[in-house]
Every structure is written in structure tokens, then in C-alpha cells.
Amino acid sequence: MSPDTDSDDDWTKYADTGYESSYDPWADMVATEDVEEDEFEDEFEDYDEDQISIREIPRCPAPAGIEHAIRIGTCDHCLGRIAGVRIAGDPLDTVGERVRSQALERDPDLKLNDDVDCCPFCEDLFLDLDLISSRISNAIKGIECSKVQLGIHFAKDQIAAEEALRASIAATGSRPLKATLSDVVQAAVANKVPGITWVKERPEVMILFDTLTLGVNVDIRALFLYGRYRKLERGVPQTRWPCRACRGREGGCESCNGTGQQYPYSIQSLVCEPLVERTEAKSDAFHGMGREDIDVRCIGNGRPFVAELKSPLHRTLDLEKLMKEINKAAKGKVEVTGLRYSNRPEVSRIKETQAEKSYTIRFSCEHGLDEEEITKRIHSLSGQTLEQQTPQRVAHRRADKVRKRKVMSIDNIQVVDHEIEFDVRCESGTYVKELVHSDEGRTNPSVAGVLEADCEVIWLDVKDIHAD
Ligand SMILES: [Zn+2]
Ligand SMILES: [Zn+2]
Questions:
Q1: Domains of the chain by range and CATH?
Q2: Cis peptide leading into residue 61 (ω within 30°)
Q3: Distance 246 CA to ligand 2 centre (A)
Q4: Model pTM?
Q5: Helix 63-71 and helix 156-169: axis angle, to 10°?
């Protein structure tokens, strides 16, 4: 507002004459420095007269207030919520209609002002209720959802203008536009789409309705399924892996046979494809509790994972049956157990869990030692803390540093000529192949170190993930 002292003084005078404190007749005034003094006075005179006419009108539910609301074009829904006569149980527009006909009985000449083009409270949004609820119903047609949330977007100044108008003529305690529109839209949609429940948090489907365009945007929240996978075949990556030659481009290339994938299948594709098909999801993501190398199997109880199905059309699933379908289609490459419903927080949980793991590893070694000596030396590593410098094989994608990892226990050491096998349980993040061959001395101590001989890993299995 202009710091002009004259206008400040004038306002003070009017403020003392009993205006509604919440109504600020200056709200729409634009601050300006260079307005001519006499122009300002003229505007002020006009404003003055308007204000006096409004000031003489009492607020609803006074009959004169209701008549004023009708004259300025208030719709039945808005009349129902601002008149201050609502009887519990009746729909707003029914209440509004009744209020209007009572006012007409009192004054048969009561009519709209000439300049009315829409309801000043809702800009005729309630008149579009049927259109709005139809658009929303159509937008969620075919989407299985029981918990739905509605978000309504208004232009900011519309809400402010409605608040100001309500503060000046509505009965005290009348409900705001946004909450009221939300209620009636929800009720209308629930009539059209049986079985939905409106929620305020964690919906399966989020509907965003824009009052400016009457546009409806539907966001189907992802469906999460938890399970464990056993990887029974070597050479299978955990997640899809774009072709190195074509970087996974649409249609692929010659070297990937047009698949765009470096490997014909992955744990992710074997587990998620049947799920995507069943749920009609748009896409999937696969979150494992860590991952094993491509050439490493994962047996025992398997590795925990959460499959994320994005924008699914179906959520009610026969998980036992689906699991059987996955396992059958995977033909012994992968086996899923314990499939159950999950949620996004569990993705973080399994990503963050630092589970100890047990492995079985087999390697060859030109040792020249007897079995007892080998067993004794390998056992000496049990309980030791390893210092592992980032292995050369992963150095291109991991920071080069030394990690300390503890070997919890070593068991079942078996020696068959120059091939040795043992079970080892160790801390999360231990490089187990490097524990054996030492990675040219970058892991210390190591099996190669204690045997004083070169060791070559033949295979490695994850035997168990001690997650829960
Ligand atoms: Zn209205
Ligand atoms: Zn390719």
C-alpha cells in the first residue's frame, strides 16, 4: 500500500466505523508511487460509496444477507454452504434450493443483478459436478483401486477471493470452497464407481483435478512384492543389462539379436515379466538385498528382493499361483519363494540391511602341503579382519580404497588333490574371491597368503544371506 499519509489517515477513520475485521477493502488496491493525488481521491470516492452499500448488508443467515447472495449470482451449492441454515443430511444444493425459494416467497421480485455471469463463490464449478465426476470415473476405469486420494488444484487468487467474499457475506462457520468441492466430487464419484474408499494418505491411485482446465490426472502408485530368489544357474545377471554394443537402444543390434540386452535373461526379467503381465504394469524395477556376481549362484534360502511394478492395473493377485508360474517359466534358472505384498519403505530396508553372508567357494591351488596343514592354515583366517583394497575387476566403477571386513567363521574345508573347497561366513560387503586369491596382494590376509601359493577360484555360491 502507498505510504501516503493522507490515505492512511482516511483508512484509520473507516476502520473505526465497524467494518468486519477480516474484510480488508484495501486488499485489491495496487501499491503505486506515482498516482496523481486527485485521481487517487476520485477512486477513493467511488470505493467509499460501494463500501457503504455493502456495509449495510448483514451477513447470512440474515434474510437481507441471503437476498444479497442470491442477487450476486450465488449457486445452490454455495448458497447451501454459506446461508448458515444447513440441516444435517441434506445435500448442499437441496438446501440451497430451499433457501432460494424461501427468499423468493419473501420477495417475489428478487432477481439476479444484471452483471452476473457466474457464481461469485465457485465460478460455477458445482454446476460442472456431473462432468467432473464423469471425467474422474472414466479416468480410473479399468484400474483396480480401493484406496483413492483426490487432490484439487485451484488458482491461488480464486481461493483468496472466495475467502474474502465469504468473510464479508457468508454465515460464520461456512465451509471453504475446496473442502466442500472435494466432498461433493468424492460423493459423486463414489456413486459412479462402487468399491472405492477415499483416503488422505497412502493411496493406490492419486487423482489430481484441475479446476481451471477441468483436467484429470491419474497417478497409479506402484505395487511392491517381497520375496527371496534362489539363482540356480551361473551366468545370469541380477538386473537387466543393456547391450554394450548398442547401449540397449530400441530394436537392439546385431550383437544382441535385436534384444537390446547383453544377456538373454536376468533375475529381474525372469521374476518380473510374469508379474508385469499379470498386473498389466507399465514397467518394473528390481531391488535386491545386494547382488551376486554373474558367475555366482545364490542357493540356500535365497536373496531377499522387492519387485516394483509401476502403474499396475491389477493389485489383487494370487501370489502362490504367480510364484508357481514364475518358477515354471524360469525352468530351473531361478526359483522364487515367500512372495508377499510389500511397500516402498521395505525397499529402503532391504537396500540398507548389512546382512552377513555365507558362501561356499572352490578353488585350485598348487600347494604341496598335506591336508592337515592346509586345514590348519585356512582355519587361521576365521575371526580375522581383512583389509581389502578395491578389487581390480571393479576398480572402474568403485572408489579405490581399503575396506575392513571380518571373516566370522570358516568350516567344511575339503581338500581333493589340488582342489580345495570351504564354507565361509563373513560381513556384508566382503570380496570373497579376493579373500581366496588375494588380488595380487590387495586383500590381506588371504588364503593364497597363508598357503603361500597361487589360488584360482573355480566357483562360488552364496549359501545363505542372514537377513532375518
Ligand atoms: Zn457456487
Ligand atoms: Zn545391442
A1: 5-55 (no CATH), 63-220 (no CATH), 223-352 (3.30.70.2510), 356-466 (3.30.70.3190)
A2: yes
A3: 4
A4: 0.80
A5: 150
Considering every ligand atom, which ligand is closest to the CA of 258? 2
Asked if 135 and 87 touch (Cβ cutoff 8 Å), the reply is: no
CA of 351 to the centre of ligand 2 (A): 30
Catalytic amino acids? 293
Residue 177 Cα to ligand 1 midpoint, Å, equals 9
CB 453 within 8 A of CB 366: yes
Ligand 2 centroid from CA 272, angstroms: 21
Q: What is the mean pLDDT of each run of 10 residues along the chain (468 residues)?
A: 37 33 41 39 43 66 92 95 81 92 91 91 94 96 94 92 93 91 95 93 95 95 97 95 91 91 94 97 96 94 97 97 97 97 95 94 92 96 96 90 96 94 96 96 96 96 90
Ligand nearest to the CA of 82: 1
Q: How far is the CA of 135 from the centre of ligand 1 (A)?
A: 20
Of 426, 455, 430, residue with least CA distance to 440: 455
Neighbours of ion ligand 1 (CB under 5 A): 75, 78, 119, 121-122
Q: Tell me which residue of 138, 122, 118 sits closest to 130, measured CA to CA.
A: 138
d(CA 247, CA 111): 71
Backbone angles phi, psi at 462, to 5 degrees: -80, 120
Report the alpha-carbon distance of residue 187 to residue 338 in Å, rounded: 39
DSSP string of 122-170?
Answer: TTTGGGGHHHHHHHHHHHTTT---SEEEEEEE--HHHHHHHHHHHHHHS
Rounded Cα distance, 31 and 25, in Å: 14
Class of residue 103 by CB neighbours under 10 A (exposed 0-12, middle 13-18, buried 19+): buried
Quick one: cell of 401? 580404497
The ligand minimizing its distance to the Cα of 75 is 1
